[in-house]
Amino acid sequence: MQTEARVGVVVEGGGQRALHTGHGGVAVAQSLPQPQRKSLQQQHQSQIGTVSQLLAGGVAGALAKTCTAPLARLTILFQIQGMHSDAATMRKASIWREASRIAGEEGFRAFWKGNLVTIAHRLPYSSVNFYAYEQYKRILQTVPGLKNSRDNMSTDICVHFVGGGLAGITAATATYPLDLVRTRLAAQTNVLYYRGIWHALQTITRDEGIFGLYKGLGATLLGVGPSIAISFTVYETLRSYWQSQRPDDSTVLLSLACGSLSGIASSTATFPLDLVRRRKQLEGAGGRARVYTTGLFGTFKHIFRTEGLRGLYRGILPEYYKVVPGVGICFMTYETLKMLLADVSATI
């Protein structure tokens, strides 16, 4: 006869009490108050292995990006309009007009142009991002000054913000060449200069050197650090507050709602940096002449001078349409997969 032995931890009055739950332990868990029981379940669900955690993060990111690929492409096309378009062309631009142009000139499948490289980038990026966040958070929680005040909300926010920022920088640096290739493939319209992922990598290396694969990395790190930091902080804070007020609500819907709100917050705060990053990535693409001959801040000044403040937020509307479902789906899928993988590992 097979005997199962599972150990959970229940926090009571600042101390810890071991809760042994085998076949008869279910009744003990069920006798706990609902908030403590739900907390115990979530703690057990979060205890998955490294491979499972990387898998959950990667699949979550790839699924979210695939679902929102058409809006992501529209965002990129709007962001780069100021590089080679005149003022009259930019005034006529609208989401519906651009979407109609893509469908008419390039076909419906063109909305997912570059999505293969997006998935190739997002799988490792999202895996590293979520995994690194959990590790940085665990390390920060052991820092003496933070460890002694873990129940303090400001301390939790600090841990989420710093951990999220470091995770974003780590993931972005590790996968940046694929992000640059994704941008260039998505920005192509009728003339195909790059025929695929490997061709783009080879062509960029040949024409622009190995450092051409890292164009715009500075703007990316300046943007992605705060973006991921804000995203994780808003998500964790809202989720924690929501669970304390409504512990019986669905975890799936909770993750979807909090993830969507966190996406809006992070996109609004860091969109100008993302726009500059896209334009820097496209410098020299397809043999075109360079538009911005200065550094990051010089590019900011150039865009602001020629296009105004509105130019720094060009494409923000499709960005909102994208991040509300996209970030929500990502967090929802990640949390759901963590629960499923935890259940699977518990039965093995």
TrEMBL record:
GO BP terms in the entry: transmembrane transport
Localization per record: Membrane
Domain of life of the source: Eukaryota
SUPFAM superfamilies: Mitochondrial carrier
Keyword annotations from UniProtKB, A to Z: Membrane, Repeat, Transmembrane, Transport
CC per GO annotation: membrane
Positions of Solcar repeats: 48-139, 155-241, 250-340
Principal localisation: membrane
Pfam family, one: Mito_carr
Topology in the lipid bilayer: Multi-pass membrane protein
Signal peptide: none
InterPro entries assigned to the protein according to its UniProt record, in alphabetical order: MCP, MCP_dom_sf, MCP_transmembrane
PANTHER family: SOLUTE CARRIER FAMILY 25
Similarity remark: Belongs to the mitochondrial carrier (TC 2.A.29) family.
Protein name: Mitochondrial substrate carrier family protein B-like
Species: Rubus argutus
